[in-house]
Specification:
Elements lengths: L2 H12 L3 H20 L4 E3 L3 E8 L2 E4 L6 E4 L2 E8 L1 H7 L2
Antiparallel strand pairs: 1-2, 2-5, 3-4
Length: 91
């Protein structure tokens, strides 16, 4: 689903204008991003928890060349879905 489709669906369900929904969505995205950058987890009701995890550096071998390299440490965004979503996906 594209952002414009999401905005349209929310506008239809809430009765808000598309412009107002877009403003709210942009504000929500901004607040979520700000909190994630500060290292805080963000709980989204009925969806799950977003958090940033540190992945440590690791060594790997290229399968074709046999060359050894190191993948540097990095941060990764993780979504931990609620049990409701897990059950719905596996039903």
């Amino acid at each position: 689903m594209l952002t414009k489709d999401l905005i349209t669906e929310i506008a239809l369900q809430t009765g808000y204008t598309k412009r107002r929904v877009e403003e709210l969505l942009n504000a929500t995205t901004s607040v979520v991003l700000e909190n994630l950058l500060q290292g805080k987890a963000v709980q989204l009701q009925n969806i799950g928890s977003l958090e940033v995890k540190e992945k440590s550096a690791r060594a790997f071998v290229h399968p074709k060349t046999g060359e050894r390299s190191v993948v540097p440490a990095r941060k990764q965004l993780v979504l931990r879905p609620t049990a409701t979503i897990k059950d719905a996906l596996n039903a």
